[in-house]
């Protein structure tokens, strides 16, 4: 979807691009990961465009009382040669309002998030080489209650395609063409080696969230192999390990008997389901691969 910005901003944007080498104003985050600013610093008669530079793989933008526009430059601490392999995802805050968010490249703007879009939990992703973020304040009678904000993450394109999440790419294609299909043996074995969490557990309950088009899987953990964040924790009541994993509602997950091997990745602070074969099937895959010397990594399957 293409949408032109307000009159006057496109020439200003192009002009600013030409002036960057001559000391155009820029704002640098104090921690290089997150930026928080206010449109009240703008003079009312000026259509200011501010530059923001961030150097982390994840963080947030919070723009209070938005006026004018922001250009958000994500410059991760990796080799520029690797940029083409990166995917950028943003997740607007629940009550984000007051500005449109565009994908900008060489002066061309493509609408990414329209002001007032209240789609809960929606994530917007695009290739790093597709452009940067241009955030334009929309005309408001009263800006006192407006805050435009979002979280961002940069990740390898292969990881982004593995995430089972309600995501929209800049070209309107889904992130994964078949997010609910079972993983192959090879995919399971690789997931065991590369996932942010790997556990053996059972499905205690499933909570479906129709509005967000997601399901929350309540997992009882029998063995914790690995976790990047403390998603799975000991509960004080029973002394058992428990946690929650999110997946798409369309996958139709239901409570049932038996153990599974749950793998997946952290995405905006939430555990997202990856491959999840029945544990007895994983044991077979692992032993067959081990007998052939094809295991990509070692893990105790029992």
Entry keywords:
single chain; six-stranded mixed β-sheet; 4 helices; elongated; 302 residues; mainly beta
Helix proportion range: 10-25%
Number of helices: 4
Largest sheet: 6 strands, mixed
Low-confidence stretches: 14-25, 172-177
| Inertia-based shape | elongated
**SS strand fraction:** 35-45%
Amino-to-carboxy terminus distance: 50 Å
Q: Could you report the average pLDDT, rounded to the nearest whole number?
A: 81
Number of extended strands? 18
Task: Please characterize this protein's 3D structure.
- The chain is elongated, with a radius of gyration of 22 Å.
- Mean pLDDT is 81; it is low at 14-25 and 172-177.
- It is built from four helices and 18 strands.
- The chain has 302 residues and is mostly beta strands.
- The strands form three sheets. Strands 1-3-5-10-7-8 form a six-stranded mixed beta sheet. Strands 2-4-11-6-9-12 form a six-stranded mixed beta sheet.
- 13% of the residues lie in helices and 40% in strands.
- It has helices at 9-19, 157-162, 185-194, 279-291; strands spanning 26-28, 34-38, 49-54, 58-64, 69-74, 86-92, 99-105, 108-113, 123-127, 132-137, 147-156, 167-169, 197-209, 214-227, 233-234, 241-248, 260-267, 270-273.
Chart the SSEs and their pairings.
Elements: H1 9-19, E1 26-28, E2 34-38, E3 49-54, E4 58-64, E5 69-74, E6 86-92, E7 99-105, E8 108-113, E9 123-127, E10 132-137, E11 147-156, H2 157-162, E12 167-169, H3 185-194, E13 197-209, E14 214-227, E15 233-234, E16 241-248, E17 260-267, E18 270-273, H4 279-291
């Amino acid at each position: 979807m293409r949408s032109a910005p307000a009159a006057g901003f496109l020439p200003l944007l192009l002009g600013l691009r030409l002036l960057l080498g001559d000391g155009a104003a820029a704002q640098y985050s104090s921690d290089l990961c997150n930026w928080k600013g206010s449109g009240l610093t703008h003079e009312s008669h000026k259509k200011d465009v501010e530059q923001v530079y961030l150097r982390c793989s994840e963080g947030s933008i919070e723009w209070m009382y938005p006026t004018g526009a922001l250009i958000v430059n994500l410059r991760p601490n990796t080799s520029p040669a690797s940029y083409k392999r990166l995917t950028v995802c943003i997740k607007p805050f629940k009550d984000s309002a007051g500005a449109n968010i565009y994908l900008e490249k060489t002066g061309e703007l493509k609408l990414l998030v329209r002001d007032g879009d209240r789609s809960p939990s929606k994530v917007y992703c695009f290739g790093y080489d597709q452009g940067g973020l241009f955030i334009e304040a929309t005309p408001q009678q009263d800006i006192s209650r407006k805050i435009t904000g979002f979280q961002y993450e940069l990740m390898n394109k292969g990881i982004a395609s593995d995430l089972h999440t309600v995501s929209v790419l800049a070209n309107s294609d889904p992130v994964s063409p078949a997010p609910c299909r079972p993983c192959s043996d090879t995919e399971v074995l690789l997931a065991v080696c590369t996932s942010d969490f790997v556990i053996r557990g059972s499905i205690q309950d499933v909570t479906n969230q129709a509005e967000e088009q997601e399901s929350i899987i309540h997992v009882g953990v029998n063995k914790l192999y690995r976790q990047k964040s403390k998603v799975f924790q000991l509960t004080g009541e029973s002394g058992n390990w428990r946690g929650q994993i999110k997946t798409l509602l369309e996958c139709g997950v239901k409570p049932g008997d038996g153990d599974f091997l749950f793998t997946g990745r952290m995405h905006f602070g939430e555990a997202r389901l990856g491959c999840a074969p029945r544990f007895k099937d994983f044991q077979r895959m692992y032993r067959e691969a081990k007998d052939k010397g094809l295991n990509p990594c070692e893990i105790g399957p029992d």
